[in-house]
Amino acid sequence: MGFFSNLFKKEEKAQSIISVTVTEKTEFVHNDPDIPPLQGDYAKTIFLWAHSKAAPIRANDSYARYFLYECGIRNPSKYHRGLIAEGYFTEASVEQTLNSLKVTDLKEILSVLGESTTGKKDALVWRIANNADTSLIEKYCPDKLYMLSALGQSFLADHADYVMVHKHKNWGIGWQEYDARKVPGRSYYDNMWAIFNEQLSRGPQDFGRTQYLFMYQLLNEEGKREQALQMLLRVLYLDFSGMDILRYADYYRRGFYKQKEMREMFNVVIMFAPGIINPIKDFADVYTDEMITKVYEQHLPVQICDRKLFLSIVHSVLDGTYDQAATEEKLKRAYYKYLRENLFVQ
Fold it and tell me: Is residue 93 part of a domain?
């Protein structure tokens, strides 16, 4: 009975989202709570950006899913036609259409024409455009392609920050929050920096790890490598601090865990994230020990990895001698010492 019950539930969920068909009229149903309403200029910006290169009007189910779940565009084929009608797109030229083809296709067309197949892509396109008739080009490019018009390019330029919001969805700041908190005249990165600092000032639950990680990514994209490394080291500092032990220590004191179980918590409270550790070696040219001194100015209620051990770990990453197994063993000894001195004391 349980099997069929689960099966019926899955069917009901599947029915709540009706996949689009190739017809233009079909839309996703509106009762899926994960589909937002149409997101106005944000949706238009992301759609224009995604179609910056020559592209045809496609079947609804051939468009990226984020148009639906991020932008609220329920019928992308119809939406695409609407933007064409409003002048945001214009029909691609023969050269632009040919540029959308692969080089192998271009060479095939030239072979049919009896023309040379040597040269770079631009030369191949020029040769076809000046020697092929319309019917041959249409054989290889059956769908009419559309490019951004001057209006589309202008709109995209005026709303460039929305593209950055889309590209950094993992930073957790949607376009509406960004619009509400941005300062006119500031760049996207400067606005996001201010938002992250504001979040830090409110005392984040993870002692700022999330914000420091995003700030590292932001600074690295801007090419501010010294500041980026400083943020990356802060993330590693928190990962090796063992802060999560506080939560489990409370359970231990209340009798939910035994000493053996607390020792086994090492892999839970000490985080080894390759995406944090490995990139450090790329910053060897800007690293200084002073950076770690600054990191340790942030005092934490728990610091299992002392400055000396942290310094040796970072140096090993920088000089290519980092050994995770050996590092884990050192941190495990420091973790056991913390338990003996702070938790298992009778």
Answer: yes
DSSP run (H or E) holding 113: helix 103-113
Strands of the 145-148 sheet, one edge to the other: 55-56, 145-148, 89-91
Measured distance CA(124)–CA(10) in Å, rounded: 52
Q: Which amino acid appears at position 94 of this protein?
A: V
**Is 213 found in the same domain as 132?**
no
DSSP, residue by residue, 208-265 = THHHHHHHHHHHHHHT-HHHHHHHHHHHHHHHTTTTTHHHHHHHHHTTSS-HHHHHTT
> What does the alpha-carbon distance between residue 68 and residue 26 come to, in Å, rounded to a whole number?
13
CA 66/CA 81 separation, integer angstroms? 18
pLDDT along the chain (346 residues), means of 10: 42 41 48 90 98 93 96 97 97 80 84 86 84 76 88 98 98 97 96 96 88 98 98 97 91 92 94 96 97 94 95 97 96 96 82
* pLDDT of the residue at 346: 56
The domain of 36 spans 11-158
The H or E element that residue 194 is part of is helix 188-201
Q: In this structure, are residues 45 and 10 in contact, taking their beta carbons and an 8 Å threshold?
A: no
Sign of the CA dihedral running 305, 308, 314, 316: negative
Q: How many domains does the chain have?
A: 2
Q: How far is the C-alpha of 236 from the C-alpha of 314, rounded, in Å?
A: 9
Which 3-state string (H, E, C) describes 17-69? Answer: CCCCCCCCCCCCCCCCCCCCCCCHHHHHHHHHHHCCCCEECCCHHHCCCHHHH
The sign one gets for the Cα dihedral 68, 73, 74, 77 is negative
d(CA 137, CA 133): 7
Residue 180: inside a domain, yes or no? no
